[in-house]
Amino acid sequence: MELDVTGIAHGGVCVARHDGRVVFVADAIPGERVRARVTEARKKSFARAAVTEVLEASPDRRPHVWAEAALERDPEERAGGAEFGHITLERQRALKAEVLADAMKRFGGVELASEDDQDLAGVLADLVEPAPGDDETNGLGYRTRVRLHVDAESGMVGPYAARSRRVIPVASLPLASDGINQIAPLADSFEGAATVDLIDPAADDPRMLIGLAGEKTRTGAGDVIHELVEDRGFLVRAGGFWQVHREAPAILFTAVRDAVQDLIDAGRFDPAASNLDLYGGVGLLAAAMAEAAGPAIRVTSVESDPGATDDAAENLAELVGALAVTARVDRHLSELLKAAGPARDRMRRGTVVLDPPRSGAGGDVTAQLIELSPANIVYVACDPVALARDTKTLRDAGYELTSLRAFDIFPHTHHFESLAVFER
Ligand SMILES: C[S@@+](CC[C@H](N)C(=O)[O-])C[C@H]1O[C@@H](n2cnc3c(N)ncnc32)[C@H](O)[C@@H]1O
């Protein structure tokens, strides 16, 4: 079908209409006229399609950064994981800003820039901040974590195809760091394996973790590796969580530190209160809080992965008031909610930093936070819609959204990170 592409949707696809039905189009840019092939039409309300030919190109279209994901290939043969790789970096950021603004308006009840705003395009263009160095490298070579998959029959290794679980052989991984490209076994056969994780730590040699088919553990996942955030060292299990973009840990560390510094300057931060770093991983953001508030800060980092908590305890060892707890966040908060008197008061004076996985904190945890009623909530989010939904709940309960920033730490994909500050 031929389509006029009118907008961007959450999830990295564009929007068009055909016979009154919404069509989500992959590999397009808003403003383009394209020929597209329908890839899914089971639902009455919408269909999915992928561009096969551009009839009128956007000035922001570029040759795809990854030959194996380009339009020249059949849609089913395109490698996944670089769905914005055909768009200039500047426009990618503007599209991410539009997605964030739209999510905040529709689900969060917050207007970031109104249609009457003279400088709507300017507001949105500046909303999503680039990572240092990305404009110089065209947003390539930044990934220090890559998961490849193994074809069960042939043993061939590669990324999944876009929107599918079919393994696509590729010659290179342009979004990945040099270290990862040096060890990537793209021409090898890994019969019996299911996944190959490639990791390029800041202060260790690159390494590979093999996940065998039918087994949960991956070889080498428990090895401790060394990461660096500016000149501060962090221990991390090779198989545990660490931000993907080489600059992302420093960007988020600095952003959280600055947000806490603003709260301190406004007289709203109490280092002796019950401060929390929820979904804390290896303690990166608790360390950021301490960088602003000083080493005497009281802060508890809560994380469900016991290996990460062990590393957090090491990483936060110099902070005498820091504690790393292995627990699910909802369970930990329900324990805290049993406290009474002075302990509850310390929580009301506290600041909660949270950095949940893609699904967001969700209704239950947000409701628990509202009941605990901390003075400030600093919310780091990788999903704008989940953030927007939780924003609505927090605002309805009397929290004000006082700051919102966003960071383009996943160039050439539709993903980005946001940081929202709420004050009670
Ligand atoms: C996005 S990461 C953030 C980690 C850390 N803040 C950082 O920046 O490195 C989310 C973390 O939450 C943990 N996690 C996921 N679900 C959880 C839950 N229900 N309770 C506690 N931790 C959880 C994951 O293991 C992961 O380490």
From TrEMBL:
The active site is at 382 (nucleophile). The keyword RNA-binding does not apply. Pfam families: TRAM, tRNA_U5-meth_tr. Keywords: Methyltransferase, S-adenosyl-L-methionine, Transferase. One of its GO terms (molecular function) is rRNA (uridine-C5-)-methyltransferase activity. It comes from the Bacteria. Residues 1-53 form the TRAM domain. One of its GO terms (biological process) is rRNA base methylation. The keyword Isomerase does not apply. S-adenosyl-L-methionine binds at residues 243, 279, 303, 355. Belongs to the class I-like SAM-binding methyltransferase superfamily. RNA M5U methyltransferase family. PANTHER family: RNA M5U METHYLTRANSFERASE, TRNA (URACIL(54)-C(5))-METHYLTRANSFERASE. This is Class I SAM-dependent RNA methyltransferase. It comes from Leucobacter insecticola.
